Amino acid sequence: MKKYFILPLALCCIATSSAQSNNAPSANAVLISQTKNGNTVTSRYVVRHDTGKSANFDIHYTISRAQIVPTYSDNSRQINELKEFMGDAKDSTMHISAIHIVGYASPDGNTIQNDSLASHRAQALCQYAINTYHPDQKIVTDYKTFSWKECADAVTNSTIPQKKEVLAILNSSNTEREKEAHLRKLPAAWKYLTTNILPTMRYADIAFDYGVDEIITRTTIVKQPTPPATATTTSTTSTTKPEVVVVDEEMSIIIATPKEDSDNRRNQRKARKADKKNAKGGSEVRYW
What we know:
By secondary structure, the chain is α+β, with helices and mostly antiparallel strands. Among the domains are: 53-148 and 199-215, CATH 3.30.1330.60; 243-276, no CATH class. 32% of the residues lie in helices and 28% in strands. It has helices at residues 9-12, 75-89, 111-133, 152-156, 163-170, 176-184, 187-197, 262-278, and strands at residues 14-19, 29-37, 40-47, 53-60, 94-105, 139-145, 203-212, 214-221, 243-248, 253-258. The strands form three sheets. It has a four-stranded mixed sheet with strand order 1-8-3-2. It has a four-stranded mixed sheet with strand order 4-7-5-6. Strands 9-10 form a two-stranded antiparallel ribbon. It is rod-shaped, with a radius of gyration of 51 Å. It starts with 8 loop residues before the first helix and ends in a 10-residue tail after the last helix. The model is unreliable at 1-22, 243-257 and 283-288 (pLDDT under 50).
């Protein structure tokens, strides 16, 4: 029987990752919460999974019977594990997508009767599952009768008496009825078969296909807005050129004049000085 394991959601279903976007991790992810801390945003998504996992449980039956006996063989443990699994299936994070039941019969006896027995075993387990757990999914049933040749592996790994002879019979080209007749002629080997091998082939198997939702936490770095530029006072350059202080030595007057006129002023001073030198004996001339 295959085992199934469902760890607590906090241990097996949470994946954490960092990303530079706020996009959901996949198309079928649903945002369930979002918190902001400083310049980071933590988003939690649930991603639904309906498949990807399987679990199965075996219920064994007594010879020629199709009724479930909880105390027979390993049935008690199998029934308890099935109950635990179905209890977990009620959790919203777990989704059963399909249920299959196959009934089996051992090869000893009439093949047609064995097929019918295997079918009834499947139906018995199906009805038990419906009455006990009321699953939403349709249960698909099938059945199978093992052949004698399918006992070969179990015989090979066993301590059955006359193993070589038994394997030769199982692997021969004889019919199922002929093989059984030959095996019955080996009393010790036949007793071993009916006690240790054939009972393990009388059972029904219930199998589940299911998925468990995944919780993904994604941390996103949020770009901070750029602060507005601080207005700066730009000094306006005056189109007026700085003034140059000129001292008129003759008139003892301080004159403020634009720089561009300084050359003209200088030339005027030179002209006045020249005039004064030429005005001998004449009256004093003043220039304003």
